[in-house]
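tool=predict chain=A
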Amino acid sequence: MIIKKISKEEFVQFASNHPLRSYHQSPEYATYMESKGYKHEFIALVDEYNTIHASSLILYKKLGFINKYGYAPKGFLIDYYDEDLLKIFVTELKKFYYNRNFAFIKINPEIAIGQIDEKTNKIIYNNNATLIEKFIKNGFIRIGPNYKFETLQPRFNAIIPLKKYSFQNLPKTLKNKIRKTNRKGLKLICGKEKDLPTLYEFVKNIKNRTFENYVNYYKAFSPINAIDIFLVEVDYEEYLINSRNLYQKELDKNAKLVEAMIRKNTPNILKKKMESDRVLLTFKNDIILATKKLSEKRTDYIAGAITIKYQNRISIIISGFNQKFKRISPNHFLYNEIIKYYQKDYDFIDLNGITGDFNKENPYYGLNKFKMNFNPKCFEYIGEFDIIINPGLYRGMKKSGLINDEFQKKQKVN
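tool=predict ok
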């Protein structure tokens, strides 16, 4: 068997039926990555009858004047458990790229080696973990440890089986937050390309993420209708109506507490009265805000997200919200509404990366907690590896700092 280049159509046909298929292994993702300076090609391991046994999108770029490295996003489309096939593939891969001045090819297969226990946050490993030894045996160099987004793709991901998602099974605090957002007049809006500048305002402070990055995502995936833009809008008319109703109900409750205090002023009643006063002030401020916005005829968008659709799976590639509206939990509303939006027609939604560090001291602790509150299945993937094509070139690049500089400055990709 040998490795050769194949057409886009041949690759798509093979990839669409492979168990490890993903939007990362697609012509559209290749187009998107061109904006990051990569060229691409589709390769396959074929036998004498031209039957494809393994395949991959290979992205590549120069590192230095003439030397290159490759990247197989989310790994090769191959049966990694077939040791003979894997050995042949890697051997032929090295032959194919050696004379083209490739130093190495980077992979990060989407192979779950463990699942995080929901109660203890301990990782329960499965048989896939044995593949690490097989990779190393075939000359792969493991990059790590990658517990906090140190490499190109997150090593830990949160995925919700959509058909099993139930609002009633969410934690009580999260359900209360989402219920409160519904009273604030929040609505999920399906956006268009023209809404990208609005959405970017919510995510512009994320390191190394430019506005053009999301434009390029849209240009790559929109021709096949595989990308959606969502915004959260505040309907101030509904906000005002709800706030007035809530204020009146709380005012009636407050009046009864005053009567109770006159009859018998106990610490418990006083505590309830003080809490009611606080709630009344909140609703009053909501009425003032909604009235002001209506008079200004304002349309406010306070959160947004971009998703990629690939076969039976949705991936949230970015999301954010206006910090000025943090108290009304727009991000919680956004995620719940996106999940409901896709629940009927898709099987899974990938909430994207979390970290493998669950300590409160972890700067990403809030991110972990937010996503895990939606009751996803959280997995640890096998991680990132370099396959050395030319050992001499690889050592030279490592020694000169070229590899470190490339991947230290590189934008994280999704």
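The mean pLDDT is 92. Residues 153 and 413 are 6 Å apart (CA to CA).
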